Structure prediction request, 979 residues.
Amino acid sequence: MSQEAIRNFSIIAHIDHGKSTLADRLIETTGTLSKREMEEQILDSLDLERERGITIKAQAVRLEYKAKDGSKYMLNLIDTPGHVDFTYEVSRALQACEGALLVIDATQGIEAQTLANVYLAMEHDLAIIPVINKVDLPSADPERVKHEIEEILGIDASEAILCSAKTGLGIDDVLEAIVQRIPAPTGDNAKPLQALVFDSKFDAYKGVVLYVRVINGNLRKGMRIKMMATEKVFEVTEVGCFIPKPVAIDVLEEGQVGFIAAGIKNVRDARVGDTVTNNDNPAAIPLPGYRKATPMVYCGLYPLDNSDYGDLRDALEKLQLNDASLVFEPETSVALGFGFRCGFLGLLHMDVMKERLEREYNLSLLTTAPNVIYEVFLTNGTVEMIDNPSLFPDPTVIDHVEEPFVNATIIVPKDYVGAVMELSQEKRGEYDNMTYLDETRVMIHYALPLSEIIYDYFDKLKSCSRGYASLDYELHGYRPSNLVKVDILLNGEPVDALSAIVHKERATYRGRQLVEKLRSLIPRQMFEIPVQAAIGNKVIARETVSAMRKDVLAKCYGGDISRKHKLLEKQKEGKKRMKQVGTVELPQEAFMAILKMDDSK
Amino acid sequence: MNKWEQIQGIYVHIPFCLQKCLYCDFASFAQKSDKTMAKYTDKICGEINQHISDMYINPQATIYFGGGTPSVLPIKYIEKIVAALKNKGLWQKPTEVTIEANPGTISAESLQAYRHMGFNRISFGIQSMQDSELKAMGRIHTAREALAAIEMARSAEFTHISVDLIYGYPGQTIKSVTNSLETIVKQGIKHLSVYGLVVEEDTPLQKKVETGELLLPGEDDSGDMYDFIEKYLIQQQYRRYEISNYALEGEESKHYLLYWQYLPYLGFGVSACSFNGKERKTNPYTIEGYLNEAEPLIEKLSPADTLAEYIFMGLRTSQGINLEIACKRFNVDIKKRYEQEIKECQSKGLLQVDAGETSFSLTEFGMKFGNQVFEKFL
Prediction:
């Protein structure tokens, strides 16, 4: 098939605006899958993705479409994640495309991530087709959305397509627009091979499977390829595309999207963003690559059962094969034993990884509260990067501390501007600017400490705006902050995994809240447990978990031994979910207590 | 022959009562007709007659009629069952023959009849000596009737009288529990079972607690009750021979003890359980199921199960686990096998090992936190 008949595109959208439903509908309408074969949201192939209704990994599907002009086209749909944690993956997918469908919910209008995604698409010079989705809903207001598209995004909205991915309305128009408005690729088959690796995954049988977009030349089975960044050479064992199940084909030509396997054992040898070339006829220069994803949020991961440490390491290594943005290194906690300090793109990423580790690898894990990386400038002139609060240096050797700030974009109905600004101020935000998007909606920019975003900014934002505010943010840089470490002592013994870095002015307040929360989370035990918060040697708050009074089966006779036996087993099983720290048994939630505090109290 | 290789007790379940108590989750059914009771009696006699045991039956095996409320079953039916047991050689020279009774369902005549048949011990479910509490529990008798029942049992020459009490029920206070306990002790009762309330699943009580209609005493309040009961009864010369059971010297229930010593027993009737040391057989839970000969539940116990159960049952008693007997019975060096667990519990003050290292048992503190010890041996 000639390049002229190929269209490579992505779908970009704010979360919940209907991206995956539209993708499903396109697959169904083009007959790539029969209705019977359609599973809902077919592209979300991880169980977790389907359960949570989110897309985490990019996916590529080849659709065959017979257009109204009578010609057949090959449409390559590269699905992208919609959550701010995965902006980086969106950017990768866009680089493999010539165009993007910009999906906007007709009832919601433009949201913070719509903007962020549009900017990304513009950066990559993509043709953007606005698609106003959910027009079948009674509260849909496509005219207002069109207005926003022109005013806010500066995109001509006259050709915006009204559609309902749910009912199928307007889907034909979307397909026609893809053919007519997205340019065909302009690669050169005669040139040496250049293919962009835009994602990868690990397959136990095939090794690393690379998702590629061929720019120039072609890729065939049996070809000896070279990864231009790592200079590793492999022989291609399989070439294929997704329709949407993987299917082997003979060749991937210029402009096409598909996958290859080449017996690559180690993901590090074939990084996402690298360029694949023909080892026997190499290209002179690689394609522009990607920035490496940098983790923003760190936490400690510990097995509840210390003997699972090795299994946890193996599981993390396996997950990393699929997700290069996951970083981890071993660490030791006095309280928790051996574990790993892990870096994630954001909280959702962290949650998803933890859940996958527990589900797919059958591990029982404990996570410490997430934190950012602090730059601690010491009086001796050196700088330490601190990704674990317990390692925060002694205040006497600290000159000053800097913490990461993000540029946050908040879009909110104008009635809630006051509440949002109050919240942002309270969260140590620095006001940047504000613009009216239209008569009713406002876009506000703040510089905010990333730690506050992790803490509870998003939840608070949602509640103070009755769910109307949307948020997007990107890392901005480090700024000095007056920070101190609050330690938690149980039974007089410091528990390193419970330490937290907080702003000095709020330290006493946070300390008090934290011990109160811990008191309510720690179940009564056979002895009384004092819970204290301290800065340095100074105790700033204290609560007591009073002793349990009794724990014994009142009755047990001949007829109910089996039942009582099971009851005891269950109690024992429940304890396995607890972590023994010194003499105290702590539930997992205790380590997340700092995130679960209610400021309004 | 070893004790654990012979039947040491016989249990007969009478699943009838006048009214079901709010907290009760036993197999017990209210207001059944005489016809049903007659059928049930025939069936249970049939079960006794057809019993085939490959186990030797200790002629002194204890007999226990429990329920439900055995005292609601007309005397003629009780007599039939007793006759069946004697006929079958299950009732030979029992050292202890107990019948459970509700103070509201006895008469001088019925008590005489029990004595005549050979019952020598009566266990009254009294639960509380406060009428308001009795009402809240759904009991059919008053405190005064309870005292009268004890008097009547004495007149019928029952020398072994036991009383069950409950603490931790909604509405109970440390004061009311103290009063109930003192009143009973004053009667010269020689055996007391004092149970902390357990809100069992699917009981009317559970619903009322869930909806907030009834409010359980707080953890600290029921903790105080527990502490008081123990202190007071020991002061009154009772021996706490099991977590919830107190007796004057020599008044311990032999039948109860056989359960805690994990010895073999036979059970007849609805929901009754038989145990031969390796296997537990439990009869159907409903009268209909039992009458229609629904299959009993057979549980084959692994050596690990039996050992764990032996330990958590044995540890309920003040005498605890005798190492020599346990080693002989299970062919395991308990001390070695559970070295870690015993040490840990000892260091926490939960377990004590006697000077000659022949046995280990719960400390007073350990009895409070028995579950924390039991689960270590599972």
Observations:
- Chain B touches chain A through 41 residues (CB under 8 Å).
- The radius of gyration of chain B is 21 Å.
- The domain at 302-378 of chain B is CATH 1.10.10.920 (Arc Repressor Mutant, subunit A).
